């Protein structure tokens, strides 16, 4: 397996720029009352982040020949949920972080109460987008998309994973226990991005859905393993967030559970498994394969 070719970089940059414009369009304008809340929502969402989840949605949409105008809405909904989760994760009652995407966290730049409302409002806006746009030819498919995102964001997904993470501070977790936590905390929203993107196009039969689901679960875990490695090795300036904070707070990570060398090996194994999951899809899954490479090989 090789690194992504220059065509991938151009594709990724195009999607990232497109999503910046889409998010700027769907977020309330700063002059709309309550102006401070809307300013903070835009501060939390725009001008930062790799947009991995929108990239995954667009890549999965290529498999089912989904239209770009549908994909951008589904991708925006997932990214708004992700942005809300970061705002809440950074709060003093959670991870108590001061830096995110190279700038002060929302509660530092504004205040805690505003940060709480920003998260609430971003989550609500995500579901508004799914409800007010036509994203699938069959209304039942679109309703299922709403359900998928709700599950991914809730107690059986991201919020539940965060609770497990909070309870695990100071406790050693085995690799299977770590995997179970991150399937919820990180993996659930990545899985939703892939399945929502694919659902914007042609029908998903059981076999195709299973392959995409397996791919999404694999890259979701790979993303977290690499995050743990980077938290151990990279600088705060490179990451755009406080480096080494997990270990200082006594949080269990893949590095603490298996060591840095084995964590790197696991990331490569997950990369291989992601390729295998979509191999039968041929050229249509090219971007999904390249994204698996990007997730594992990234340096920030």
- Give the overall average pLDDT: 93
Count of DSSP-assigned helices: 16
The CATH homologous superfamily corresponds to Farnesyl Diphosphate Synthase
The gross shape turns out to be globular
Largest sheet: 2 strands, antiparallel
The share of residues in extended strands comes to under 5%
Poorly predicted regions: none
Strands ordered across the widest β-sheet: 1-2
Query: Termini distance?
Result: 21 Å
The CATH architecture classification is Orthogonal Bundle
* Radius of gyration, taken over Cα atoms and rounded to an integer in Å: 18 Å
In total, the number of strands is 2
Question: What would the CATH topology be?
Answer: Farnesyl Diphosphate Synthase
Q: Structural class of the helices, strands and pairings?
A: mainly alpha
Number of domains: 1
Q: What string gives the helices and strands in order?
A: HHHHEEHHHHHHHHHHHH
SSE arrangement:
Elements: H1 6-26, H2 35-45, H3 52-63, H4 68-89, E1 99-100, E2 103-104, H5 106-109, H6 112-132, H7 139-153, H8 158-167, H9 175-185, H10 187-199, H11 206-233, H12 236-239, H13 245-248, H14 254-258, H15 260-278, H16 286-297
Helix pairs in contact: 1-4, 2-6, 3-4, 3-10, 3-16, 4-6, 4-10, 7-10, 8-9, 10-11, 11-15, 11-16, 15-16
Question: How would you describe this structure to a colleague?
Answer:
- The protein is globular and about 50 Å long.
- The chain is mostly helical and 300 residues long.
- It has one domain (10-295): Farnesyl Diphosphate Synthase (Orthogonal Bundle), CATH 1.10.600.10.
- The mean pLDDT is 93.
- α3 (52-63) runs antiparallel to α16 and α4 packs antiparallel against α10.
- The chain is 71% helix and 1% strand.
- The longest helix is centred in the last third of the chain and has 28 residues, at 206-233.
- A hairpin with a 2-residue loop joins β1 (99-100) and β2 (103-104).
- Strands 1-2 form a two-stranded antiparallel sheet.
């Amino acid at each position: 397996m090789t690194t992504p070719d220059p065509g991938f970089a151009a594709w990724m940059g195009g999607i990232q720029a497109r999503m910046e414009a889409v998010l700027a369009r769907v977020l309330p304008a700063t002059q709309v009352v309550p102006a401070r809340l809307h300013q903070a929502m835009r501060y939390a969402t725009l001008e930062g982040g790799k947009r991995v989840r929108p990239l995954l949605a667009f890549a999965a949409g290529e498999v089912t020949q989904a239209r770009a105008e549908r994909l951008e809405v589904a991708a925006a909904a997932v990214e708004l949920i992700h942005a809300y989760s970061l705002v809440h994760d950074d709060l003093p009652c959670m991870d108590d972080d001061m830096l995110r995407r190279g700038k002060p966290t929302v509660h530092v730049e504004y205040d805690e109460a505003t940060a709480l409302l920003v998260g609430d409002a971003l989550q609500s806006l995500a579901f508004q987008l799914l409800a007010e746009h036509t994203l699938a030819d069959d209304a039942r498919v679109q309703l299922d998309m709403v359900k998928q995102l709700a599950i991914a964001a809730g107690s059986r997904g991201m919020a539940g994973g965060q609770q497990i993470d909070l309870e695990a501070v100071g406790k050693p977790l085995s690799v299977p226990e770590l995997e179970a936590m991150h399937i919820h905390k990180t993996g659930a929203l990545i899985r939703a991005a892939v399945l929502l993107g694919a659902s914007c196009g042609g029908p998903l039969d059981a076999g195709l859905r299973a392959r995409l689901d397996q791919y999404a679960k694999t890259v979701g875990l790979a993303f977290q393993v690499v995050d743990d490695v980077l938290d151990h090795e990279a600088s705060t300036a490179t990451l755009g967030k406080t480096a080494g904070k997990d270990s200082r707070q006594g949080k269990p990570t893949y590095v603490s559970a298996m060591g840095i060398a084995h964590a790197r090996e696991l990331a490569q194994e997950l990369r291989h498994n992601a390729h295998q999951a979509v191999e039968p899809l041929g050229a249509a899954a090219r971007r999904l394969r390249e994204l698996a490479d990007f997730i594992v090989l990234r340096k920030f």
